[in-house]
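Page 42, continued from yesterday. The earlier attempt failed because a stray header line got pasted into the input along with the sequence. Redoing it now with the clean sequence only.
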Amino acid sequence: MSLSNNITAVLNFVSFLCSFPIITAGIWLATKADNQCLHLARWPLIFLGGLILLVSLAGFVGAFYNRPCLLALYLFAMAAVIVVLIAFLVFAFVVTRPQGVIEIPGRAYKEYYVSGFSTWLRNYVTNGNNWVQIRDCLSQSDTCQKLAKDESYFTAEQFFQTRLSPLQSGCCKPPTACGFTYVNPTVWVNPVNPTGDPDCVAWSNDQSQFCYDCQSCRAGMLGNLRQEWRKANVAVIVAVVVLIWVYVIGCSAFKNAQTEDLFRRYKQGYT
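This time it went through. Structure tokens are written below.
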């Protein structure tokens, strides 16, 4: 095996390793409570990671056994994968740029509003049919039950200084504007300002309802998705940078291999 093919084989092993952060990011998203109810980003990431894995294996086999056609196919396929990954990153950053956050004085947690998120993400999540399925899934999950079982919240002040996830903030408690009195993390009574927010009348201490019908819960779902997508994008960015570097060097190695092969044939014909 020529030096150029050796280099190409090593580079394909590197790109093979790059598939694992992307697949891991997809699996990580799949373990999150919101993505268990909304399979929005995990399958594309797992699919793209699997595609990189297969393309890298094809390139490795082509380099190891000196199959120029397979190497050429690998370079074409890897270029397409890189373009798709970059398009996915651009799309993800565009739809997750708005954050819809409301800072609440005296509270460590934040609250969220639906209109503060991107139109595409908002329409996908809050669409009537989609939200009915998401709401039913959330009501059967342990997102709020975990909060209720946490024994560290003995007083209202302790709870107010807790950093809740967007999903917990939106779905497991009433909006602060309603002025409910804290009993425990999921039981609130006697609203001082029941007209302060349209969600005030939607709140229920029933564990199967809580604020799952609230606009704040929809906003919490959007806030969770935004945070998780942003974290998953870090792994994708690192993988894309490494893949571009590998691809550029791979193209150079492929050209050198073709030149070496041409020179060897010329030398054999000459002798």
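Notes: The two ends are 22 Å apart (CA to CA).
Reminder to self: strip header lines before submitting.
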